[in-house]
């Protein structure tokens, strides 16, 4: 039997075989696990040569005969990342500083086999910075302009702490110079401001100062700038950003860190808004500066956000939006759409602009995010980041590392995989770079699209049918219009290129079920040594000798074998016709099949009621018994009483009832030739009734004694007299006990009184209220003479 491919998606052998590869080149593009055997058994199909390596070895294909080319990685340029100090003596040019390693690689890709390499990134200390300050000069920014006039020298001093190579430039913008964005009356074109305000003529974008390392020059030129004005609230800042991004030479951008500070207190116009001024031509994304002025604002619409994102990314520009509190939500949403951008809150007069720039730069530079250009069709790339303190990221987080300080080194594991060879050419180039940086890694992709043995092919070989193919890698690679193992078939005859597929049943892997040969898309079944044994079927999937056996006989000797299944004779069934349909062995003592509690299958009872068991389903260890089972029905039919009195006709008409005079008249077990059960049951009044239950000739018979056996009732008078006498005696006893207790209590009290009387002592003191009747008077003058 051949290998099945039920789980073809995870079975490498199935993947290889089901691809039906007709050449070595086709085989190695199926999956990395597939190999091509240059030598197999004579007559075996071409597609059988393509299999997983282990299966090929098991099929006795020598390792030296297996074509299994592997991909490789070659590092072409690998300059180490730069290590230098800001205060060091080695002053390097920007192009001499390396922050990413390696710089160029060549990858040889085989389909399904990823190639993984490590990329290192290290933030270089004292890395040069170009900063371009783009400012809104509409009238609402008047007080902001005053604070920006000294920005050049002040910012130079602050940036010295970060880099010794810093350049700064300045540009300004207002709005498109057409209605309804500005007033086009002659007077307003000269001075768009109202009242006594002296404003300059409106303009779209002006490059005031290209990037320079002279802060004084910045201050001087900015001090000469004047506020302008426009009519609507949103400004034309997107036009200015586009020109700053694409006009590299006029702005003076170097291949260093590029920062664009966009300062405004208003919103922005974007693509489509130009229709208000009759401008419908999309922005072309090209430089249109003449004498440092944008000259095509009236001709091209505002750029779209996506267009800006592309140009800022292509030119490695990191944007800092310095906007007032009112427009923070708008620009934060814009920040989410523009990679490597930041938003800072600008005070009402721009007094905090230096701190805002420093904080935004530190935020942007502390994060590195890798990006790649468009990948060739069929090529995929995955990233895994290994950041500070060993923190790892995968998926989208695998592209970036955060909280990177100057001098920190992080690395990325990058895997590139191809699923197929390119349609045109065998070499592609992709580039990977950190967002906002000019450095990049160039990766040259070469694809393995054929085997090495294909170079030794024999065109129009005699080994192929009538020279209709090239014999390469041990098989015939057919010429145009020919197919088959030896190119023996014509496409016009067979009308399919996958001949072997016509010989595989249910999209399996075995050709002709391994019981025949595929000849031009049709199975020719093999012959057996025993002429009585025959393979048959469209895919040779049937035979008449591989059916189930019983007692060492094909189909148990009770049927015939057709397409590996037994067709049983009458009265037999089962996969091997070993199941008899006779029921005599299933009869119970009561004459019923399986006691009416099961089914007879293959001469054996299968009890359907789980309570019954035994060979004929007659044993019931947990059943209450026949007597208890029929008690209620016997009671309702014989005595019109019991729980089933109201449903007697419906539930209890399944037996024949016969009444007898006394117990002696009931049938006796010794007198009967059929099973009989004697029953004695008690009703709700404690009366006993006697009956028998039997099944005779499939008829259920119940003999019942027609009189209930009730116990005699009790004599009421003696019981009542006894109860009354008992109550009287108990009452008298209680009275005597109470009287006795009272006598005892009185005697104890009297004895206590007598004792206290004898122990009493009477006080003989004078009466305090007594007064004598005699009064004695003393003469004070009497001296006793």
TrEMBL record:
GO molecular function: C-X3-C chemokine binding; collagen binding involved in cell-matrix adhesion; fibronectin binding; integrin binding; laminin binding; metal ion binding; protein kinase binding
Disulfide bonds: 16-451, 24-34, 27-61, 37-50, 193-199, 247-287, 421-679, 449-453, 464-476, 473-512, 478-487, 489-503, 518-523, 520-555, 525-540, 542-547, 561-566, 563-594, 568-577, 579-586, 600-605, 602-648, 607-617, 620-623, 627-636, 633-710, 652-687
Chloroplast among keywords: no
Gene Ontology CC, one term: cell surface
GO biological process, one term: muscle organ development
Listed InterPro entries: EGF_extracell, EGF_integrin_1, EGF_integrin_2, Integrin_bsu, Integrin_bsu_cyt_dom, Integrin_bsu_tail, Integrin_bsu_tail_dom_sf, Integrin_bsu_VWA
Domain annotation Integrin beta subunit tail: ranges: 627-715
Keyword Cytoplasm belongs to the record: no
Family matches, as PROSITE patterns: I_EGF_1, I_EGF_2
Localization terms from the record: Cell membrane; Cell projection, Invadopodium membrane; Cell projection, Lamellipodium; Cell projection, Ruffle membrane
Parts of the chain that traverse the membrane: 716-738
Region (Disordered): 72-94
Pfam families xref list: EGF_2 (PF07974), EGF_integrin (PF23105), I-EGF_1 (PF18372), Integrin_b_cyt (PF08725), Integrin_B_tail (PF07965), Integrin_beta (PF00362)
Recorded topology in the membrane: Single-pass type I membrane protein
Residue span, Integrin beta subunit cytoplasmic domain: 739-785
SMART domains: INB, Integrin_b_cyt, Integrin_B_tail
UniProtKB keywords: Calcium, Cell adhesion, Cell junction, Cell membrane, Cell projection, Disulfide bond, EGF-like domain, Glycoprotein, Integrin, Magnesium, Membrane, Metal-binding, Myogenesis, Phosphoprotein, Receptor, Repeat, Signal, Transmembrane, Transmembrane helix
Name used for this protein in its record: Integrin beta
Source organism per UniProt: Sander lucioperca
